[in-house]
Each structure stands twice: as C-alpha cells, then as structure tokens.
Amino acid sequence: MFVVIKIDSMRQQEVKMINTRINWVVHMVKTSTCEFNSDESSAIMDVLQLINKIGKKLDRLQNQLVQTVNITPPQYFILQILWKGDGIPFKDIASACCCTRSTITGIIDTLERKGLVYREPNPDDRRSQFIKLTPEGKALQNSVPPMETIFGTCCNGMGATELGQLRNLLFKFFNVIP
Questions:
Q1: For the residues of 32-53, what is the DSSP string, one character each?
Q2: pTM (2 decimals)?
Q3: pLDDT of 83-132, one tens digit each?
Q4: Using CA atoms, how far apart are residues 173 and 62, in angstroms rounded to an integer?
Q5: Quick one: how far is CA 37 from the chain centroid?
Q6: Where in the chain is the domain with CATH 1.10.10.10?
Q7: CATH of span 70-143
C-alpha cells in the first residue's frame, strides 16, 4: 500500500513474504550466537516489529477498501492489473503478482465464479490463456475507490525527501535479509 503512494510497489504477496522473512529474522536475532551490543539488538528488534506492524496496518487498510464490493485484496490486485490492460496472459498476471501460476489459478477461478473475468484461449499457443474482464468486472472499477485514496493520506507529515530515504533504507534492508 509517494506523497501519493503507489500500492503496486507493495503487493500483498510481497508484504506477506516480507513479514515471513521478518519473523525469521526476529527468531534468528533472538536465538543468535552473534555478538550484538544491547543497543544494536534492541534497534533491530524495534525495526522488525515496526515493519511487521506496518504490514498489518496495510493489510487492514486493503481489507477495508475491498470488502465493500465483496472481493479480497489479492482479487483486487489482479483486477487492478486487468483494469490497466485487459486480456493479459495468465503467466504475466502470475509474474506481476510475484506468485506461481498455481496460486493465481485459485484467485482467477473465484473471480470467474463471481462473473468478473473469463478465460480466452491464446490463438498462438494453446497452452496459454488470456484473462479478460467481463462487463461486470469493468464496471467494478468505478465502484471501488483506488488504493491511492487510502494510502495517499497515510504519510501526511512526511515529505518527498523523507519518503525517498525511507524507501531506500527499506530496499537496502530487504536486500540484506537472506
């Protein structure tokens, strides 16, 4: 979930993956035989706990946004991809979501049952399918406020420079976690 934050950069699957890694790092710090001075250890634990809490708040905000139209955040994310460009190959949706095709299959199945998307065979490759929006799926875009509506106000009081620094530090932190 910028003075206007782009939610595309914080996909739900990425948030869950980060939370999983954070929980692992918390465990490693607690059980580590590495020598941390108490200030370093305390700072690491504070950072990890804050990131975990931020992830939970972002999840809660996403859920509030999409529950009004009876879809889940992963379903919303796939619909967002399709609203930007209808008729996307299945494998490209999985790649954009940082998920396997098998994970995306269940979400697409549910969206299909809800009458929001349908599958169309790829005429050039019979193993491939395009996912397309139904008229109901297209209309839903006007019923759901964009994520930026909620996330656009979450960083009031932080300037573009501070947000850039925070983003850079988080990317650095993300990349050092095994």
A1: --S---HHHHHHHHHHHHHHHH
A2: 0.64
A3: 988 888 888 898 888 888 888 899 999 999 999 999 999 888 888 889 99
A4: 24
A5: 35
A6: 70-143
A7: 1.10.10.10
